[in-house]
Amino acid sequence: MIASKVQVRWAGRFAQLLFPLLLAGILIRLSDDRGPFWLGANSDGSYQYLFNSLLVMNDLPPCHVIHPGTTVQTLGSLLLTATTPGNGVEAMTYNVLLAPERSLMLLQVFFTAFAVIALATTGVFEFERTGSVLCGWAVSGVALLQIETYRSLLFVHPEALLVPLTLLLVVLLIAREQVPPGPSGKRRQRLIDVSLGLIAAAGVVTKVTFAPLCLLPLLVQSGWRGVILTGGSMIVGTAGFLIPLRTQLPRVFEWFTRIANHTGVYGEGESGFLDPKNYFSDLWRMAAAHPVLCAVIGVSALAGGAVTLSRPGDPRARRCSRLLLLTCAVQALGLMIVAKHPAPRYALPLAVSAAFNVSLLLELMRSSAIGRPRTIVRTIAALAALTAVAAIGHELRTSSRDLRSDRDDEIEMKRRVDERAPQSKRIEYYRSSSPEFALFIGNGHAWRFFAPLLSELHPNRVFFDVIRGRFESFAGAIATEGVFSDGPRVLFGDGNLEKLAPGVSFPLPPGWTMRKVDQGRISIIHQLEHVSTGSVRQ
Q1: Fewer CB near the last or first residue (10 Å), C or N of the chain?
Q2: Rounded distance, CA 90 to CA 58, Å?
Q3: Do 413 and 518 touch, CB atoms closer than 8 A?
Q4: What CA–CA distance (Å, rounded) separates 160 from 154?
Q5: Tell me: the pLDDT tens digits for 381-400?
Q6: How much is the pLDDT for 106?
Q7: What is the pTM of this model?
Q8: Domain limits, the chain
Q9: Cα–Cα distance between 352 and 292 in angstroms, integer?
Q10: Of 517, 503, 511, which is closest to residue 531 (Cα–Cα)?
Q11: Exposure of 532 by Cβ count < 10 A (0-12 exposed, 13-18 middle, 19+ buried)?
């Protein structure tokens, strides 16, 4: 009998590996659909974090600090140091720049593995708590029902780390509610509270959009001692995680001040916290982009409110209903904050945190608070889950198709531009699909520190900075006259030269003309030629 129970227990644990393995399999397929990181649709973000990880590896402060993303850069530097061949930092730096795609793939695999392990931990822990395989699947499956989970793990950026960090936060929140009474229980609770503070600190240093979830470890406390312990851990952890960024903190504070004081995207626009003309439509769009999160918030608020109003005698039910309402309030507040700059990925931590709501709802169903209508609730939950599975299946198929389409189109445009002109005769600008332009973008967000090595590896490359309206090499600005002194050029990018910032224009010299010669779904190829007495000089 005992052996049989042990076997059942181990079978339940192994069953919780189903969703993590499913996540890994889907990401392998989507990564193939995505194509190389240097493609125009992929490079922005991943290459910035690769180059800033290289800065940290070279004992330099990161330059790209707007998220601030310090944990991604620090982990990236450690992984590059551990996996890059070479004797010394200089040799390893050279090898990373020689094969950046290899390094980016290693970083993506690490973040994906971290997310898979965190998802498995979530499911196993819920199974151990309830003894139900279905409960474990219900809690861990929430993250898999939301498309942003998959999109975030396809690239090297803060969201890839926020997925596992949020799952670990959820596990610790659930674990805290299961601490037994007594001295040993109090010691375990203090350890969990410290861990909650450190995970929250890592999350907010990864990206400030995690900040609303930092309230949960404080709100679950039942006394001021717990609040002080957890809050102190957050402060100490935040300070520790920001050490690589310490010399750049004034830039970080300036950036966040602009974000808070201006209504536009990235600190632009008029002064003010938000734009009342667009805010509510943006909030609606954010909610529509996260139907699973909003549905979980709605159900949690109804269940928590109903149980609270019924005043159950079971203290466990009262505690769960209170936590449900607090969690819903935090998530709703988070949605209202990120709607200021609406982008679905900004609500990713809130979306993944819905796993905590599901765990609390399951606990209420196990109690007498929702005892009688349990069959009806289970039926509704099963129907909702099937609907969500069908919806995410459709979204995954659509994402896979779109990624393949963008990949194939950009690779074809790269082939066409290679046929038209050698690299020394090209000018590349934003979202150009070439390995060299991806390196240019990354280096431009890394103090241009790696310009000498990049110029050695890729000599005579010319780029156009669409922000400043000037031609540049890896090292910085170059004179317009020098660019056009040696005959025709091919211009390669996304074609949005007419949408440059006010006061910025493409510096085409007198006597030169620009004509479109090829176009794909994302990229456009222009020919730049000198016109002389009515004829084109080739």
Answers
A1: N
A2: 8
A3: yes
A4: 8
A5: 788 889 999 999 999 999 99
A6: 97
A7: 0.94
A8: 2-399, 421-537
A9: 10
A10: 511
A11: exposed
